[in-house]
């Protein structure tokens, strides 16, 4: 009877540990991906339509893992491991949004980071700015005539070199007018699209049904083959991979470099979350050098990851310059 009575609270506590969930999410080191390598048989950074130079070593992007729906026992075990951080669930999944909405927002940020990474790399490599088609409405007047990535050079025979010139000419049109847009297509030829302008409910001018922006343009395509990786923090490493593949020599001197950081189209590197988790993931993968956004430096230093050199970066230009010192033996900016 004494044994049975003693076992009752132990069993009850075991049930609580295994059944009761807690309002916390565990954050920890996530998978890393070599942006110079392949995933599922495809290059992570796939460039077609121009010469691609051989690369070596690693330029790994890093991620943070998230574990939701934890039982009390799982939460305690992860916390005691010292590798995981427990944070209130509302900080990761705000109660006013569904999990699907948050995941979709993260995926949208990731797709935007891919575009920014391409633009930043092409700008670094001195490709010219053009009026570039960013999107084409499926049921708009330009559907089937223009494609994402087309560079528009003329509107009705008048040259356009920037977005302001393009918009000024489009503002002169009315619904029903016909315009001819001369364009260059990636991995293709010069073309001309004759488009009958549509009507937009909020504008008097003609409507093309496209999104355009000033962006550096190259005649080849750059595709990123990573799926189910949310958020914008891979931007810097994607840009570095594009630069490495389009230039001679090894940007990383054949070494194992990892890093993180958002990037804008003009090459500014921004801060990210979970820097200490990403550093641990990089070290576990074998990295010896880690590129840290300048605004994350203080937090990165607090991790005390021995054997991982922390290189401070604020721009893509600075990141490339820092990596070039690996072979030249120069001094790198450190956190």
UniProtKB/TrEMBL annotation:
<feature type="active site">
    <location>
        <position position="278"/>
    </location>
</feature>
<dbReference type="InterPro" id="IPR008269">
    <property type="entry name" value="Lon_proteolytic"/>
</dbReference>
<protein>
    <recommendedName>
        <fullName>endopeptidase La</fullName>
        <ecNumber>3.4.21.53</ecNumber>
    </recommendedName>
</protein>
<dbReference type="GO" id="GO:0006508">
    <property type="term" value="P:proteolysis"/>
</dbReference>
<dbReference type="InterPro" id="IPR014721">
    <property type="entry name" value="Ribsml_uS5_D2-typ_fold_subgr"/>
</dbReference>
<keyword id="KW-0720">Serine protease</keyword>
<keyword id="KW-0645">Protease</keyword>
<dbReference type="GO" id="GO:0004176">
    <property type="term" value="F:ATP-dependent peptidase activity"/>
</dbReference>
<dbReference type="GO" id="GO:0030163">
    <property type="term" value="P:protein catabolic process"/>
</dbReference>
<dbReference type="Pfam" id="PF05362">
    <property type="entry name" value="Lon_C"/>
</dbReference>
<feature type="domain" description="Lon proteolytic">
    <location>
        <begin position="228"/>
        <end position="326"/>
    </location>
</feature>
<dbReference type="InterPro" id="IPR001478">
    <property type="entry name" value="PDZ"/>
</dbReference>
<feature type="active site">
    <location>
        <position position="233"/>
    </location>
</feature>
<feature type="domain" description="PDZ">
    <location>
        <begin position="131"/>
        <end position="187"/>
    </location>
</feature>
<dbReference type="GO" id="GO:0005524">
    <property type="term" value="F:ATP binding"/>
</dbReference>
<dbReference type="InterPro" id="IPR036034">
    <property type="entry name" value="PDZ_sf"/>
</dbReference>
<comment type="similarity">
    <text>Belongs to the peptidase S16 family.</text>
</comment>
<keyword id="KW-0378">Hydrolase</keyword>
<dbReference type="InterPro" id="IPR020568">
    <property type="entry name" value="Ribosomal_Su5_D2-typ_SF"/>
</dbReference>
<dbReference type="Pfam" id="PF13180">
    <property type="entry name" value="PDZ_2"/>
</dbReference>
<dbReference type="InterPro" id="IPR027065">
    <property type="entry name" value="Lon_Prtase"/>
</dbReference>
<dbReference type="GO" id="GO:0004252">
    <property type="term" value="F:serine-type endopeptidase activity"/>
</dbReference>
